[in-house]
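Loading example: each entry is read as two labelled lines plus one structure line.
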Amino acid sequence: MYDALLDAFSYVFTVEALLWILVGFCFGVVLGATPGVGTAVGMALVLPLTVFIDGVTAVILLTCIYMGGMYGGSVSAILLNVPGTAGSAATTFDGYPMSRKGQAVTALSISATSSALGGAISVIILFLITPFIIRLVLLFNSPDLFLVALLGLAMITVVARGSMIKGLTIGMFGLLFSTVGIAPTAPDVRYNFGSLLLYDGLDIVAALLGLFAISEMIKLSAEQGGIAKVDTEVTGSVSEGILFTLRNPVYVIKSSLIGTIIGALPGAGSSMANFVSYSEAMRSSGMADSFGKGDKRGVLASEASNNSAVGGSLIPTLSFGIPGSASTAILLGGFLMHGLNPGPSLFGSNLDITFSIYIAVAIGVIVLIPALGLLVITQLGHLTKINTDYIIPMIVILSLTGIYTVNISWIDVLTVFLLGIGGYYMRKYDFSIVAFLLGAILGRMAEENLFRSLQISGGSYDIFFESWLSIAIILIMLLLVFSPQLMKLRGSN
Amino acid sequence: MKTPINRLQTINGEMVFTAILLIIAVYLFFEAFTFSERAATFPQAISGAAVVGCILLLISKHFPPRIRSFIEEDARIIQHDEEQATPRDDEPVDVDEPQDQDTKPTNSAYTVALIAGYLVVAYLAGFFVGTPLFVLAYILVFDINRVYGAGLLVASIAIVAGFDRALNVPLNEGLLFTVGI
């Protein structure tokens, strides 16, 4: 483990890696601060561009965009009352009223300081629990990994917007997406329509670009002009914001812990984390009436939690390859694109990659968020005024030319276009895009481990009930699938 | 009693979308029978489940209310997710004033048509020809300010040229002709 840590340090502390960390954070902040674009779209756009760089750097870059975006989302939340990311929604409650009182800079300083501290706490937790994760993931064999894939699919009930049946149905289509091409279990080519171009299957990066970038742009084009309609004067005090955050360590630590724990639950994500920690700050303050009217503790709690949730969300993503949100799904896409297998290997032979990601996040939250947030704070307001009409054609061009350059395949370009339209209607009719992606990403893992397990057992399905681990996963899965109905029944009684 | 016309009027966009999904699932289900047994099991099971799901969604209105609510109602344990960058309508985001958001659904159709045209031109003549034409069409359709439009045009050409130079990808080649650069 210590060798892996040393390898990670020597990898990250190179000029090239540090430069990509800086680029990732800056780009993430710009994306997060630009209402309507969002971190997921930006990460999807960057995916094909990472063919330039090696896999580990690409994954670090994507993680830094994710982290930077989470902080950047607070800028538009505070200045415009429009959260740049869903994880900053609770920041609007007190951040925007502070701006209206002429304390925008103070609010942005609180956001930068608490985001940095929250992120740092989550990284410390990641380092502390990694030895336990290593022991846990090494217990998993093929039958358990198949059940973990099923558990990931059961997460659809957690993440799917709209009805559970809708979520599960669209998740099945995600699984079907993964079945195109050569079967992992037999020398058969499936659903290739006689075309050689489909032998290797459909590209997950193309799916991500279509579902996030193109579908979002189609949706955005219906909205006239820019999203920013309010002009707020960026005034206030940087030092006041920093001092306020440092004088309230209990709120920072509590919100960071809430963020890390909720972030680690697949499907919960930063949006839930920031609402829960905001509510907790409101409850424990004893001055609930002041919240929603520009209470600094509201901004602090929300921002400390959403950045720590990013650290938490890396746990299921890296250890089992289960993406709990759109951003982590794209991060997984980055792993797959560069031939890196998320899952137990990242806590075994490839532990140095995992540590590299942790260190990159640590550098980002400890150095870059304060630097970007506090030094260029008065300039960040300009980002919120970018007219989305100008962004749309650029994102379309980047998506289509970008995906073409990855494999020089028109099938990929067509996939982006068709899933862009499909994704638009999925959003419109409440079919969860994340559920589709869960299926697309976990499909191959599920099929491979199912057949490997059946080969080991000679075709007997009893193998899935033989270990305590398998039974525990099955119980969690049943709980996940049926808990909404149980909760409803309990509520009606 | 409902006339056929009344019945047709109850069909909405969501039903049409679900019906398209059903057709795709049915096709994939039967297509899976052409694979060997080992390769067919997984897609057959999945497409079969997708068919059942689509049918349930399509006929849910005819079920008793209790079963209908199981199929149609939001069953999420957790009510906030990260799918949308912008807040949902039911999220209490606005503090003082609503964001006056004008929406024009026809613009989405124009965007899809423009992207489709872009792909056709790029396929036939390469991205070097397709990209500036797409931006020009976009500027005209969405009435973009000329100065910003010129900037977009330059930026779009820079993106394609950047990819071409950096990755040595044949972005100048189309099915019909190649643009020399």
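The longest strand of chain A covers residues 181-182.
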